Amino acid sequence: MNEFNEYFKSAFTVDNVIFGFDEGDLKVLLIKRGEDPHKGKWALPGYFVYPNEDLDTAAKRVLDELTGLRNVYLEQVRTFGAVNRHPFGRVITVAYFSLIKISDYTIQPSSIAQKAKWHAIAKVKELAFDHKEILDACFNRLKWLVRSRPVGFELLPPKFTLTELQHLYEAILEPEAGLDKRNFRKKILSMNLLIDLDETQEGVAHRPARLYQFDKDKYEEFLAEGFNFELKESKKKEKPEHRKKARHSFP
Amino acid sequence: MNEFNEYFKSAFTVDNVIFGFDEGDLKVLLIKRGEDPHKGKWALPGYFVYPNEDLDTAAKRVLDELTGLRNVYLEQVRTFGAVNRHPFGRVITVAYFSLIKISDYTIQPSSIAQKAKWHAIAKVKELAFDHKEILDACFNRLKWLVRSRPVGFELLPPKFTLTELQHLYEAILEPEAGLDKRNFRKKILSMNLLIDLDETQEGVAHRPARLYQFDKDKYEEFLAEGFNFELKESKKKEKPEHRKKARHSFP
DNA sequence: TCAAAAGTGTTCTTATTACACCCATGG
DNA sequence: CCATGGGTGTAATAAGAACACTTTTGA
């Protein structure tokens, strides 16, 4: 085992891209770094993995300390390990993302949580370390995920309107021309994963929308069989082109 | 920085699931371990990541030392880091898979390569460490990948018949009833990613099949736009059921 | 009564599926 | 001449895309 001692001088961290949805924007929770390296820059919440801690556990711990939330959607995405990515030595980081309901989030008393702030994804330009690259990778994974599994609900409050749901999908998928309202509703409702609560919004200056709830039980049933949660972008405003020769539209 | 010394006592490895396709079976290249731990068991090829080496580079190195191949399809899948997965200490491993043409593979002179052998995926039941779990994760990723990108060609010799291609897809996707020959051909050919070589097989005891080649240039073009490489299982032999209520068929 | 968003169906087009027979070769 | 796998087309069905007007509320 002596011959391997050389290799036992590295460390690894987890970094967590925590997604939320609010005011029509997809957001990510970032920490303003109080110390070097990268002091003053925004960074993903993360920390070293303890010697006796599994990777998933570490990711949950980071999330819990920051938001007080457990039992949320959390998934490993990819590991980033460029040689010089961390000034302290060889540190690779395992990237996770989680989906939380911003309405459930309350700032925790921990010092780190005091420095946390939600940022609209689209406006995040630069982050500490290689965190921008990590954010992009997680955002891409989310784009894929949302087409294959109904995880969107993880980001919405328990009761929501179809328009809110559509806006969430638009915030994630960023279709140029938006999604077609009628087709979106048809597709979503045809999945039978929504419970119509027979309630409506109150106090809005327009016709109040019906409220729905995600039917988690029915979802579990479907998971066994597998199903399609794809959503395609409306072509409405597409400039009249001489119709692409081949339209193998990978979603 | 002292406060972090505690964490710089770990190591990480890469493990590589090397897929090949031969005799109608999807195969994986495994190494028979010559030393403890897990002496005598089959394991994925892998090694510690050198202190000054990127993760991808390490994965390529492992592949190169074993097969002599470079410039092959290689992708990171997931990182496995259970606390006690390795008896030498805390070692997490970054899993990769690669797709190679078995016809290009020649056993390398290195001692490790002498112990390598191809195993049909379906027959691999137990592996050293958590390598079976890693293999399963990579196989699942491949199943997904093959539906979204035309990577199947990475596993075939430069010239192949449509039936060989179909058998490859069946080996990966494992559809219960096989794929429908006519629909498969229609779909594949409609993608315009194959060059008809205007050659045929020789020396076969039946009508010789046409040979095709993958059109890499055209693929690069398509990549810009995105496209669909999905293939669905034939329902031929499905027992006559009262037609599933909802058939959101996630591929 | 106005502004603002909710809600709702139909038609057209495209993709997917199911399905059965003749063809070319070597032995 | 036979065994083996190669090769081909069509019709029915399902899914996706385009598209515009009426309704309900608060201000």
Helix content of chain A: 25-40%
Low-confidence stretches of chain A are 235-251
By CATH, the architecture of the largest domain in chain A is named Alpha-Beta Complex
CATH superfamily of the largest domain in chain A: Nucleoside Triphosphate Pyrophosphohydrolase
Q: Count of helical segments of chain A?
A: 6
Q: Roughly what is the average pLDDT of chain A, rounded to an integer?
A: 88
CATH topology name of the largest domain in chain A, in short, is Nucleoside Triphosphate Pyrophosphohydrolase
Percent strand of chain A equals 15-25%
Biggest beta sheet attributes of chain A: 7 strands, mixed
Succession of helices and strands of chain A:
EEEEHEEHEHHHEEH
Seen as an oligomer or otherwise, the chain set is: homodimer
The SS-based structural class of chain A is alpha+beta
Termini distance of chain A?
50 Å
Protein traits:
DNA-binding; elongated; alpha+beta; homodimer; 6 helices; disordered C terminus; seven-stranded mixed sheet; Nucleoside Triphosphate Pyrophosphohydrolase; Arc Repressor Mutant, subunit A; two-stranded antiparallel ribbon; 251 residues
Helix and strand topology:
The structure is a homodimer of 251-residue chains.
Chain A: E1 11-22, E2 25-32, E3 42-43, E4 46-48, H1 55-67, E5 73-80, E6 91-99, H2 111-114, E7 116-120, H3 131-148, H4 162-173, H5 181-190, E8 194-200, E9 210-214, H6 216-225
Chain B binds a DNA duplex (27 and 27 nucleotides) through residues 161-163, 180-183, 185-187, 200-201, 203-210, 232, 234-236, 247.
